[in-house]
Amino acid sequence: MAVVTATETGVRPSRAGRRPSIPGWVGTVPFLAYVGVFLLLPAGIVIVDALKNSSGGWQFSAITELGNPLVRGYFIGSLKLCVITSVSGAVFGAILAYAVASGNPDGVVRRMYLAGSGVLAQSGGITLAFAFQALLGPVGLLFHASWFYDFPWGISLIYAYFQIPLMVLVFMPAIDGLKVQWREASENLGASAWQYWRHVGGPLLAPAFLGSTLLLFANGLSAFATIEAWESQVAYTVPQQISISLSSEVGLSNINYADVLALGMMIMVVVIMTGYALLQRRASRWLR
Amino acid sequence: MAAIASLGESGLATPAERPRGMQVRRRRRLNVFRYLVFTVFGLFFLLPLLATARFSLEGNRLGSWSLAAWKEIATYKGPPPLLPAIEIQLELAVATCVVVLVLLVPTMVWIRLRVQWISRVFEFLCLLPLTIPAIILVVGLAPIYNFIRHYQLSALTLFFAYVILALPYAYRALSAGLNAIDVTTISEAARSLGASWFTVIARVIVPNMGQAILNAMVLASALVLGEFTVAYLLLYNNLPVELFSISRNTPNASVIFSTSLASLLFAFALLLILSYAGRRRHRGRG
Amino acid sequence: MTSPMTRTQDGAARTGVEVRMAGLSRHYGPVVALDKLDLTVQAGELIALLGPSGCGKTTTLRLLAGLEDADAGHITVGGRDVTHLSASKRDMGMVFQAYSLFPHMTARQNVAFGLRLRRIAAAERDKRAIEMLELVGLSAQADRYPHQISGGQQQRVALARALAIEPQVLLLDEPLSALDAKVRAQLRDEIRRIQLEVGTTTLFVTHDQEEALAIADRVGVMKDGRLEQLAPPTDVYSRPATSFVAEFVGLTNRLAGTVSGSTVTVRGRDLPLVDLSTPPGPAIALVRPEAVTLAADSSGDSGPLTGTVIAVTFLGATSRVTVDLGDTTILAQLTTADASELPAGSHVTLTIRPDPVLVSGDAPAVSEA
Fold first, then answer.
1. Domains of chain B
2. Confidence band, pLDDT 50/70/90 cuts, at residue B142
3. Residue B201 backbone zone (phi > 0: left; psi -120 to 50: alpha; other: beta)
4. Potential cystine with C109: which of B154, C25, C105, C217 (Cβ 3.0-4.6 Å)?
5. Interface membership of B192 toward C (CB under 8 Å)
């Protein structure tokens, strides 16, 4: 593959014909080392520590802790919050995404909404919680919402603030992927707008929609900062309980608790993200 | 429901004859829908920000106005003082960006050129942080950071974790950039003209990735600026953690709101700049 | 072929309808896409609209389909005014250039889609779908998805889908442009065969003149939103109405000459004019390569009709010979056998067959089409 140049270029000519003495994958070692230490190792620690008892031996009884009604309560709390925010985020986000996508591809509006979505989807949960507190809290600007500190309603509203933009970011490419020819062809064959969406547009967008909803679900599950700023005394969700377990240093058994919860959460997220990946693959086959 | 009107991609239609598939009536109905949606959602997204702004401009008496909170961003003594935290936050953003780029760009280019078979594994690793979110990661990071803490380093060491958190976003941005340039062809062309591997990477490929690199940096920065979970649970003091403590000490302190708004606006400005920078055509460099 | 042919199938008469477009205009802001177009397509006829990009051919098609609104004018299909009828009610079948098929449906489901919308029973529409797929030769691929079949096959399914609803008019928007050359030629003949068999009035838009000339009953050459000429293919080729048509369709030599009376004098030869009202004076005559014949010249004369062969382009049965006449170059089309006797460098004399020629109003330039 390498070519030896005939002229003197001053650059050391590549070794023609000879296989490089260092195998290629060596170049990825820095990356692998870094990821190994700061990603794989922590993940491994979580899994291993969840399965170890206080004297260092293996025990799987920690897993049965997950069946404990208190713990189940946290998971149910998390699930409630996730279902509400992912479904509502998906529906509203899809509507907003459609409104943005159907405009001028180069226009100001689109640009601004995309930039805005980028920020809001990432927005530090702390600032969000403060902002809503300013709006609907006890001295709220708009009014004092009596349900603001009720779980899950107040916190769901705050979650919507970043779930909807995330949906816009993730789902809009799918809407863009709907080719104008499909709309025109179906019209030409006699379909009304409703029939188009029912037979063509809807089915084509369905995998992307479902996949995005799953992504929102995983996102809601993992969110911590927002709910912590909203209400740090009572733990409703798994992340909050993990935080409490981590900060209370009452013996090793508590650290195991955090690990067990984290493991439970990890399994859930892995399952959800796998579903997301599969749906994305189907969506991109049709809509790219 | 109104009709789709994406003016796009009958990719092979010639520019001059690009069809506009909408009749006037339908277009008007669609526009009504669009502007209705924008108004409703615009309100939803704006109101909390407006409330934050109002609180940030609150004076000593309820209902009065004052810029004090904004000036306070720099002068707030605490507990805890804000300015060091702001500094740390910006330093963290820069450190994370640099490390992410140094780690990813050469590796991605290298993989694309020399070891394509690793790319699947690589992609999996880069996207893994999406499946192991901060709250889970931090549980496993705690022991590791206990180890690091022995060296008495500042909160800056948080960047180790932040790089991981930023990986998926940076990977996607850089990957899109690499896809847009035909890496194999231009590197083969450069090699056949006598360039070494280093030259190929540094002088041929990277300059063509400007947009993607900028993209990745902005995404990583936006992530770092708002990051709370890892810092908080690893017992470090970064800006969001500070704001949180302030709010627990003195709830409704105006400086919380002014700082929050400032950091949101900063991130928004970054992303807007990125979006416009992307419009400029690449002038052929090298 | 000037008279439309309609065939019957399964004993049921299937005749096309007449399509009449009168005074059609459309503009996008300041750009005029169509300028008062008048076009009548006879029942069962296939008209090919040909022209460069921006000439309005696709706009015409889309106005006919109802995908866009005309600013002025009327469209009558089979005697019925459809100008203000929405696209979904016009009963026309359309084949697009790309992305024609619905990706989430099999070929069979795609073809049956129009029938499904018309609430035809499942068994009946399945039967019809298979019939149509057989018509285009793809019944074996009935249960494949679009991404599993080739581009040419996709377009065939698209054609089957358009025909399944028994449309009054068939509209084809550059259906072959996205395909490989070989597939293009095959499919083009297929489309013509099917169109003749089914007998539907058809409008075929293309920028490829070979396509247009090969399959159309009549060819409409368009430029800047207007029809330059509407005539059978042979007429468009050998009796072009305007210099634009002459230069767009087929190759043309542009030779400087002088007009006087009813002839134009080109390099010492008098050639009859097509348009006898051409004003006298200097002009560019448009001469077809096949009107130029070459003979080897060993005498070394140098007259206005002598020159040197620069290049020979092999095209299969014929070859194109480029001859340098000193002040300009000229293209001649010869059989390959003849051309092989005149390799590059040979001295040749030319004769120009006295076919009526058109004269272009442009300033003299040294170039050929």
1. 2-56 (no CATH), 75-285 (1.10.3720.10)
2. confident
3. alpha
4. C105
5. no
- The pLDDT of residue A21: 61
B4 shares contact with chain C (CB less than 8 Å): no
Say if residue C163's pLDDT is above 90.
Answer: yes
Partner-chain contact B14 C68, CB within 8 Å:
no
Nearest alpha carbon to residue A74 among A162, A148, A128, A152: A152
Judge: C97–B10 Cβ closer than 8 Å, yes or no.
yes
Give which of B158, B160, B93 is closest to A37, Cα–Cα.
B160
Tell me, yes or no, if B244 comes closer than 8 A to chain A by beta carbon.
yes
Interface test with C, best of A189, A197, A200, A279 (most C CBs within 10 A): A189
Q: Is A231 on the interface with B (CB under 8 A)?
A: no
CA distance A133 to A26: 52
Asked if B79 and B243 touch (Cβ cutoff 8 Å), the reply is: no
Q: What CATH code would you report for A66-283?
A: 1.10.3720.10
Q: Is B125 on the interface with C (CB under 8 A)?
A: no
- DSSP structure string for chain A: -----SS--SSPPP-SSSPPSS-GGGGGHHHHHHHIIIIIHHHHHHHHHHTB-TTSSB-SHHHHGGGSHHHHHHHHHHHHHHHHHHHHHHHHHHHHHHHHHTS-TTSHHHHHHHHHHHHHHH--HHHHHHHHHHHHSTT-SS---TTTTSTTHHHHHHHHHHHHHHHHHHHHHHHHTS-HHHHHHHHHTT--HHHHIIIIIHHHHHHHHHHHHHHHHHHHHH--HHHHHH-SSS--SHHHHHHHHHH---HHHHHHHHHHHHHHHHHHHHHHHHHHHHHHHHHHHHH-
pLDDT digits over A236-282, tens only?
888 888 888 877 754 445 557 788 888 888 889 999 999 998 998 88
Residue with tokens 């502007």: B35
Measured from the Cβ of residue B66, the count of other Cβ atoms closer than 10 Å reads 14
Neighbouring CB atoms inside 10 A of B124's CB total 10
The CA distance from A154 to A131, in Å, is 13
pTM of the model: 0.80
Q: Is A185 on the interface with B (CB under 8 A)?
A: no
Return d(Cα B35, Cα A82) in angstroms, integer.
Answer: 29
Please report all neighbours of B, defined by 3+ CB atom pairs within 8 A: A, C
Q: B75: buried, middle or exposed (CB in 10 Å: 19+, 13-18, 0-12)? A: exposed
Q: What does the radius of gyration of chain B's CA atoms come to, in whole angstroms?
A: 24
How close does chain A come to B134, measured CA to CA in Å? Answer: 7
Which residues does chain A have within 8 Å of residue C103's beta carbon, measured at their own beta carbons? 204, 285-287
Most C CBs within 10 Å: which of A178, A181, A182, A188, as the mutation test of the C interface?
Answer: A188
For residue C102, list chain A residues with Cβ-Cβ distance below 8 A. Answer: 182, 185-186, 200, 204
- The yes/no answer to whether this complex scores an ipTM above 0.95 is no
Q: Does the pLDDT of residue C45 top 90, yes or no?
A: yes
Q: What is the pLDDT of residue A123?
A: 67
B36-65 pLDDT, tens digit per residue, is 999 999 899 888 888 888 888 876 666 677
Local structure of residue C141 (DSSP, 8 states): G
Which pLDDT score, from 0 to 100, does residue A134 have? 84
Best to test chain B binding among A9, A22, A31 (most B CBs inside 10 Å): A31
Q: Which run of H or of E encompasses B40?
A: helix B24-56
Query: B265: which residues sit within 8 A by CB, 6+ positions away?
Result: none
Using one digit for the tens of pLDDT, what is the confidence trace for C294-319? 888 877 777 788 888 999 999 888 89
pLDDT (0 to 100) of residue C227: 93
Which residue, among A102, A104, A103, A121, has the nearest Cα to A226 in the 3D structure?
A121
Distance CA C329, CA C331 (A): 7
